[in-house]
């Protein structure tokens, strides 16, 4: 029996007779030739069946194979620069049908509307474009973990059930938790602050949930965030860390995702321009840039998607906007001692109109100031007693940030909407499949 190999490794088997176990992605016939497009989860490649190389019954049966028939294909690998997908193809000598579709496959090789594709997301994922996006996502996750692991950050997993809000209370998903109410986490940050006091520098990486009633191309109700937190770190060092982190992700994708970016027809020139240091501007400076470029923003307001787009298009690299008005930031943000109307915070806004990908800053480490802030935000003090303990016992300056994975994937891939960046997106109107 021929050796079973994966398509991603096919270049190592030129001239050998091998077996691929996968599915029929597409097929066309031309007289005495069948051209089969094969996929096995690791890649796509073409197989060619010549009528004279196989028995007549097999050749005829192959002509009637349906899209997504699961098959085991045996043949000899050869190089061919003209072949689709990759510059290799297989000369097929045998096909074993494992299972035939019970009906016509719905996601055919024609144009489909987005609504239809989203209803069939579990099948749409099999196409080359979607496979490429998921592979880029996978590499970004590897880059994220590698960055923090190499810098000896401790991974600390944050809980998904929480007793209270981290951000605004209007974006919480509430659930019954035995005899009390609980909420799906908006962020692991508060727990990372406790972790930083135990390990010095930590990060969590997991799903977070926001019940924002938003249908923009940048929003999901369930998304993944990586959140580092470091003891004895202040805002400038926090910005240094965020800058190095983003640069690392971009460099990793450019190095490891060339084929996927080509499949996606992503123009990599804007990514190749990205280099440290990134521009750092204050909120006040950002407001002026927005107004000068036709934006309609009132001073003191948080940035909306149009404002972020203007800023992102104004710079060739990510731009870091720091010191927003304290009134529009979360209760835990430390105020600037030189101007208490401002928070010691930073947002990183991606170029090309992809919006905010990082939000972070210094945390208030004075227990009395934090208690006052919790009261001013009308939050239940009892739910934050454990959080206040972090300040009661050896409080230190500390800072961190959160990066949204899906927005970062959208930016790297050049996608219009974040719904394509996660295997099974959750939005206001989408919970199936």
Task: Give a description of the structure.
There is one protein chain. The protein has 433 residues and is an alpha+beta fold. It folds into two domains: 3-99, Beta Barrel (OB fold (Dihydrolipoamide Acetyltransferase, E2P)); 121-420, Bira Bifunctional Protein, Domain 2 (BirA Bifunctional Protein, domain 2), CATH 3.30.930. The protein is 30% helix and 27% strand. It contains 13 helices and 19 strands. It has helices at residues 56-62, 114-119, 121-124, 128-150, 189-199, 235-256, 258-263, 269-272, 283-292, 305-314, 367-376, 385-392, 405-413, and strands at residues 3-4, 17-30, 33-39, 44-50, 70-79, 88-99, 154-155, 161-162, 174-177, 180-184, 201-209, 222-231, 280-282, 319-322, 335-336, 339-343, 345-350, 355-362, 398-404. The strands form four sheets. The chain has an eight-stranded mixed β-sheet. Strands 2-3-4-6-5 form a five-stranded mixed β-barrel. Strands 8-10-9 form a three-stranded antiparallel β-sheet, with no helix packed on it. Helix 4 crosses helix 6 and helix 4 packs across helix 13 (405-413). It is elongated, with a radius of gyration of 26 Å. The mean pLDDT is 96.
